[in-house]
Amino acid sequence: MKVLILGGTQFLGRHFAEIALNQGYRITLFNRGQTNNSLYPDAEKLVGDRVKGDLSALKGRKWDIVIDTAGYFSNLPHLVRATAELLKDSVRTYVFISTISVYPEFQANGDETLPLYPINQELPQQMNAQAYGTLKAMAESVVQEVYGEQGLIIRPGLIVGPYDNTGRFTYWIRRISQGGEVLAPESPELPVQYIDARDLVQWIYRLTLAHKSGVYNAVGPDYCLKLGQFLATCQQVTGSNATFIWVPREILESYKIEHWQELPLWLPPNLQNTFPCLSNSKALANGLNFRSLTQTIHDIWQWDLVEQLEYASGLLRDKEIAILQSMGKINTI
After folding, report:
1. What single-letter DSSP state applies at residue 123?
2. Does 161 fall in a domain?
3. For the chain: N or C, fewer Cβ within 10 A?
């Protein structure tokens, strides 16, 4: 199979590239040639810039599928339209990686038929969660318009794994591995959904080989995972002596803790039992499967021990200590 990857040098794109190469696919990476350019010397590399409209390297070529992971661009629908229309007669399947954030309101066990953000509006001027969801919904509409039954739209939730430069999942693994009293939000019963990037990518390639199209929520696992179980598994995998201090919502809010970004997996009250509770029934019926939580945590932990990236997400240690001390849970750490 011949695969065109738009990007291919960061997080999810790297997994698309590596798994394709391991499967013996012929891959072409199209990007600006400025990030991790030494990766994948056996891959064909085309240089261009979607933001500047430079797509000339893609003209007159043929691939079986194209993978488009475009994310935080204020003109995302225009970028997607430019590549989608240019490649209309050059690829069999256009795979667009969208997001569950296209849903303005979440429901427990909600499926792909949940209403989306309106697409008939001006492009958002400020990038926030609503704008991101709106732009992705607009881009989905473009793919469906241009490709119809040849379009494959994937809506992941939290994507995790090696190469993750957001740190939202990795924060917990790293923090728990350090041991001591660990601040945990509210209750061990809070629901958690995530998907390992490698499981996501392998499944998408299987879908394309089967000539599948349509829209799929891509969330996991295939059971009801709770925060307490996730944190305990991090403790088990890393061999940590961590103990968890469950801090009530009102205390976290009094310290103005930012949901999701500052304290990953913790959400506002209206989202805590809906956002991480979407249905993945359609994806499961079409072959999505998952490696174990233990394996995912282990691989991220080992990768993080080597890379030691600095993340924008995660609770600062000094702030964690201050909150726990205010509760009388610790004297010093």
Report:
1. P
2. no
3. C
Q: Sign of dihedral through CA atoms 192, 198, 201, 203?
A: negative
* Region of residue 179 (left: phi > 0; alpha: psi -120 to 50; beta: else): left
Residue 42's domain comprises: 2-156
Q: 97-120: per-residue pLDDT in tens?
A: 999 999 999 999 999 999 999 998
Are residues 175 and 182 in contact, defined by beta-carbon separation less than 8 angstroms? Answer: yes
Q: What's the pTM? A: 0.96
- Which residues make Cβ contacts (< 8 Å) with residue 153, sequence separation at least 6? 96, 98, 140, 143, 144, 214, 215, 216
Read off the CATH number of the domain in which 115 is found. 3.40.50.720
Listed as ranges, residues in the chain with pLDDT below 50 are 333
What is the domain-level CATH number for residue 247? Answer: 3.90.25.10
pLDDT tens by residue, 275-286: 999 999 999 999
